[in-house]
Design a protein that fits this description.
The chain is globular. The chain is mainly α. α4 crosses α19.
Length: about 575
C-alpha cells in the first residue's frame, strides 16, 4: 500500500535523467482517495453538463459516441496517463517536470502557467453567474425567470422567452457591443467576491486543505445528478428528449468535422496541458500506480458526460412538450444552462428546489475545476520561486486569489459576457494543443519513450504496455498535429474573428435592415471583432506559445556561453 506521508523531491542530473534527493520533504495527499477525488473533480467540470450533450445533439446523436470513444482511447487516456506519470516521477510542477526531461523544455511549464492564469481569471466569472442564479432560486413563489415582468410588453411576450429576457436584461444587464464595458452590477460583483472567497478558503493550505474539501465537492455533484436524473426521466416528454439524444445518425460519421469535434472535446474535457494533472500527481508517493489512476479518472469523466446527457435531455424533452420549443434551437454553454434548462425547471412543480439543486451542482463542478488550475499555478510558482515556500501557505494562496479577483472585476460589468466569451473561445485552443504537442515530443522523442517507461517501471513495478508507448510516440503527436492544422484551415475559411452580439429582443432597426428575422428567438447577431480586440486575441495566443521556443533558445545560448568559458 502506498504511503501518503511525505514525498521526496526530484532533481535533474547533467545528462537529463531523473534522480531522487531527499533533502527536502514535499507536501503530500493525506490519502489516496484525496488524490483520486481531486483529479475526478478537476476533470469533471461544467463542460460535461452543458457542452457534451449539445455536441451529441449537433453531431449525430448516439453515433457521436463512436468518434468520442475512439478519441478517448488514442488521445485522452494516453495524454492523461503521461501527465500523471510525469508528475509522480519528478515530484514537481509543470516547469520542473518538463525540465527534468530536458532543461530546454522548462518553457512548456511556463506556457502552461500562462494558460492557467488566463483560464483561472475568467472561469470564476462563470461560477459568478451560477451563484447569481443559485441565490435567486431561494424564493417562496415562482422563480424570477418564470414569467415576463408586468411592465414589459414588447420584449418579453410569453413564458418561452422569459428566461432569455432574464438572462440578458436582468442577470447580466448586457451591453450591446463588445467594446462597451458599461457600468458594474452590484449583485454580480457580490457573487464574484463570494466565488473567490470560497476558492481561497478551500485551497488556502494547498493540497492539505483542498484534499479534504474534495470529499464533498467531488462526490456531492453525483448525488445531485442522480436526483435530477430520476426526477427528469419521470417528466412528461422525457422519453422524447432522451430518444433525440441517443438516436444515431450514422451519416454524420463521414463528416471530418465530427471527428475533430470529438477529439477537441476529449482534449478539453480531461484538462490536459494545463499542468494541473502534473501538479496533483507530484504530491503522490513513488509507488502509486499512476497509470491505473489515469485510466480510471478518464473513464469516470467520459461516463459522467454521457450520463449527464440523459439528465439534460430528459429536462429538454419536458421543455419541448410543455412549451413547444424545438430541439433545433438548442445551444451550447450559457445558452443551455441559463436559458434552456432554467426554462424547463421553471415549468416543474417546486421549481425553486430543483433550480437550487441544479445550480449548486454546477457550482461544485466549477469549483473543483478551478481548484485544479489554481493548484497548478500555485505549485509551479512555489517550485520556481523557492522563497515562496518560506511564507505561510495562506499568504501565497490569498495573494493569488486577491490579484485574480481584482483583475476579474470587469467581468461584473455589463460587458462581462463579451470578455468571458472572448477568453473562452479565442485564448486557449491553439496554446493547449501546442503545449500538448511539445509534451509528447519532450517525453517520448527527446527523453525517450523507452527510458520514460523504465522510469515508470521503477515506480510501479511494470512498464506501460505497447498501447501507451505507441500512442505517446506516434499516435498522439499525429492527432494533435491534425487538430492544429485543421483548426487553422477552418479558421481561415471562416475569415475574420466574430462574436455573438446582443441586440435586444425589439431592435426594430435591425429587422427593417434585414439583419435579423422578425421573430428571431436568439436576440443576437454575428458581428466582427474590431481590430483592437483581434490584436488582443493574437497577443493572448502568443503570450503562452512563444514561451516554449523562447526558453529553449535562451537555454541553448546559456549552454554555448558555458562551453565557451571552458
Amino acid at each position: 500500500m502506498a504511503s501518503y506521508d511525505k514525498v521526496a523531491e526530484k532533481d535533474t542530473e547533467q545528462n537529463g535523467s531523473v534522480k531522487s534527493t531527499d533533502s527536502k520533504a514535499r507536501d503530500a495527499w493525506g490519502a489516496k482517495a484525496e488524490y483520486m477525488l481531486a483529479l475526478i473533480g478537476y476533470a469533471v467540470g461544467i463542460g460535461n453538463i452543458w457542452r457534451f450533450p449539445y455536441l451529441c445533439h449537433r453531431y449525430g446523436g448516439g453515433s457521436f459516441l463512436i468518434p468520442y470513444l475512439i478519441m478517448l482511447a488514442i488521445l485522452g487516456i494516453p495524454l492523461f496517463c503521461l501527465e500523471t506519470s510525469l508528475g509522480q516521477l519528478t515530484s514537481k510542477g509543470a516547469p520542473g517536470a518538463f525540465a527534468a526531461m530536458h532543461p530546454m523544455f522548462r518553457g512548456i511549464g511556463y506556457a502552461a502557467m500562462v494558460v492557467d492564469l488566463i483560464c483561472s481569471y475568467y472561469y470564476n466569472s462563470i461560477i459568478m453567474w451560477i451563484l447569481r442564479y443559485f441565490f435567486s432560486s431561494f424564493t417562496t413563489g415562482s422563480l424570477p425567470w418564470s414569467d415576463c415582468p408586468a411592465n414589459v410588453t414588447t420584449c418579453c411576450v410569453n413564458e418561452t422567452n422569459a428566461t432569455m429576457y432574464y438572462w440578458y436584461y436582468e442577470a447580466l444587464k448586457s451591453s450591446n457591443d463588445a467594446t462597451v464595458v458599461g457600468s458594474i452590477d452590484g449583485y454580480l460583483f457580490g457573487c464574484l467576491i463570494v466565488a473567490w472567497v470560497v476558492c481561497f478558503l478551500c485551497m488556502c493550505k494547498g493540497v492539505e486543505s483542498s484534499g479534504k474539501v474534495v470529499y464533498f465537492t467531488a462526490t456531492f455533484p453525483y448525488v445531485l445528478l442522480l436526483v435530477l436524473f430520476f426526477r427528469g426521466v419521470t417528466l412528461d416528454g422525457a422519453g422524447d428528449g432522451i430518444k433525440y439524444y441517443v438516436t444515431p445518425k450514422f451519416k454524420e460519421l463521414a463528416n471530418p468535422v465530427v471527428w475533430r469535434t470529438a477529439a477537441t472535446q476529449i482534449f478539453y474535457s480531461l484538462g490536459v496541458a494545463f499542468g494541473s494533472v502534473v501538479a496533483y500527481s507530484s504530491y503522490n508517493p513513488k509507488n502509486n500506480n499512476c497509470i491505473r489512476d489515469g485510466v480510471v479518472v478518464t473513464l469516470i469523466n467520459c461516463g459522467t458526460s454521457i450520463f449527464g446527457g440523459f439528465v439534460i435531455f430528459s429536462l429538454l424533452g419536458y421543455r419541448a412538450k410543455k412549451s413547444g420549443v424545438a430541439f433545433s434551437e438548442l445551444k451550447s454553454g450559457p445558452g443551455l444552462a441559463f436559458v434552456a434548462i432554467t426554462d424547463a425547471i421553471s415549468e416543474m412543480s417546486i421549481g425553486p428546489l430543483w433550480s437550487i439543486l441544479f445550480f449548486f451542482m454546477l457550482f461544485l463542478l466549477g469549483l473543483d475545476s478551478q481548484f485544479g488550475m489554481l493548484e497548478s499555478l500555485l505549485t509551479s510558482l512555489k517550485d520556481e520561486f523557492k522563497f515562496l515556500n518560506k511564507l505561510r501557505k495562506e499568504l501565497v494562496s490569498g495573494g493569488i486569489c486577491v490579484v485574480l479577483a481584482i483583475l476579474a472585476i470587469p467581468m461584473a460589468f455589463r460587458g462581462g459576457l463579451y470578455i468571458v466569451d472572448l477568453l473562452d473561445n479565442w485564448s486557449l485552443s491553439y496554446p493547449l494543443l501546442i503545449i500538448a504537442l511539445f509534451e509528447v515530443i519532450a517525453v517520448s522523442w527527446v527523453y525517450g519513450v523507452n527510458r520514460f517507461s523504465k522510469d515508470i517501471k521503477g515506480m510501479i513495478g511494470s512498464e506501460p504496455n505497447i498501447y501507451f508507448k505507441a500512442c505517446w510516440l506516434v499516435v498522439c503527436p499525429l492527432v494533435i498535429i491534425v487538430l492544429l492544422l485543421s483548426g487553422i484551415v477552418l479558421a481561415a475559411m471562416k475569415g475574420y474573428p466574430t462574436y455573438d452580439k446582443f441586440v435586444g429582443c425589439d431592435n426594430q432597426t435591425l429587422i427593417d435592415q434585414g439583419l435579423r428575422p422578425q421573430a428571431d428567438p436568439s436576440w443576437v447577431i454575428t458581428d466582427k471583432y474590431p481590430g483592437g480586440i483581434v490584436a488582443i486575441i493574437v497577443l493572448m495566443n502568443c503570450a503562452s506559445c512563444l514561451l516554449i521556443p523562447a526558453y529553449a533558445i535562451w537555454n541553448q545560448l546559456e549552454n554555448i556561453k558555458s562551453f565557451l568559458r571552458l
